[in-house]
Amino acid sequence: MGPVITKSLRPHRDDVLLAVLSVLVGLVFWSLGVYSNGGRQLLPDWAALVPLAALGSMELLRRTKPHLTLAVGTAGVIADQFTVGSLATVVIFTDLMYAAVVYGKPAMARRLPVSTGLITIVVTIASVAWLRTPQALLIGVITGIVSFGPALTGATLRNHREAAVAARLRAEQTALLAEMDRTQAVAAERARMARELHDMVANHLSAIAIHSTAALSIDKAETSRDALGVIRENSVQGLAEMRRLIGLLRDAGGDQQPVAVPSLDGLDALIAQAGTNGAASGLTFVLHDQRPSGEPAAAPVELAAYRIVQESLTNALKHAAPGTVTVRVGRVDGLLSVAVDSPYGDGPGPRAPGSGAGLIGMRERTELLGGRFTAGRSGAVWRVRATLPAEEKAVEA
Fold first, then answer.
1. In what order do the strands lie in the sheet with 323-332?
2. Distance (Å, rounded) from C-alpha 114 to C-alpha 135?
3. Nearest 10 degrees: CA dihedral of 43, 49, 55, 61?
4. Which residue has the higher pLDDT, 251 or 386?
5. Residues 6+ apart with CB under 8 A from 314
6. What is the pLDDT of residues 266-305, one digit of tens each?
7. Structure pTM?
8. DSSP secondary structure string, 146-191?
């Protein structure tokens, strides 16, 4: 069972000071003979001290018990009308009315301004109808000053406080949403950088790993020399790709020259490089580019398609059995299609280990552009299929 939280009934320091001062001022007025009712009292002079003391004690509870203080205050100010009267008693009642609206429940804060306004109107009409003199309007004015005025002031202050609290909450929520957006943007950028780094480096490192393993396992000078040539070529190209990525990260959009972004026009070179790297594993690579000439797709689409082909070739170098790897690229009805088929099985040569990040990266690239991606075994063939929107407006959507 959890702890029980109770509201402290200890009077506020300001309320204690207000209660003491109001009672002292009332006593001074009474001792000096300053009365509010003149000669129409029905009780002895000292009887005016009873409502004064009652309302003064209620000042101690004005924040914690607003319902009780308003009820006692109303009864006390009515009883004060049958005595010589004390101006301090009336002033204390106005403060209790104000406190009831400010510190009371929301329902009380809504009702009091309306009810005191109606009471003021009724008292004014009744006084004019009963006394039939213009001075009777003063009774209504005094009633409004004592009841409706404090209630309206308290309601105005409470509305301002609630508006300030709501504004602060909205500001905190806005800041929280901004922080969430920033975190998501950082996460998305980190994922994009991870995909770029993987796609640029994994292909070259896989070729280096395969050929270095072959050079170590086959004790022939010619084989080692060919492997070292391939390793050097992939190392140089990998360094160039790394420099390009570093340039992209450092580029602040200022005076630096734009960095070339890979596109589908570079597939021939990519296939040729894959053929060189896969010769030791018995792999050959064939490209069927069925795109209409002179109609390039949007730059993000071209980059994504290029990376998908690059990663598919890398996976083929790692895992494919000897045979032919076929790459098909086409464009029909505003859609760019990429298909890569590679022999499925265990090859005789060395293989580089895989982490599965390549398939995840290809799927993410496709889905970010609103396309479809599938990859899996179909008989003795591993198939990779990606369909991307080729138009710029489809990418922006």
1. 283-290, 323-332, 335-343, 381-389, 372-378
2. 25
3. -140
4. 386
5. 202, 203, 206, 358
6. 888 888 888 877 777 788 899 998 888 877 888 888 888 9
7. 0.50
8. IIIHHHHHHHHHHHHHHHHHHHHHHHHHHHHHHHHHHHHHHHHHHH
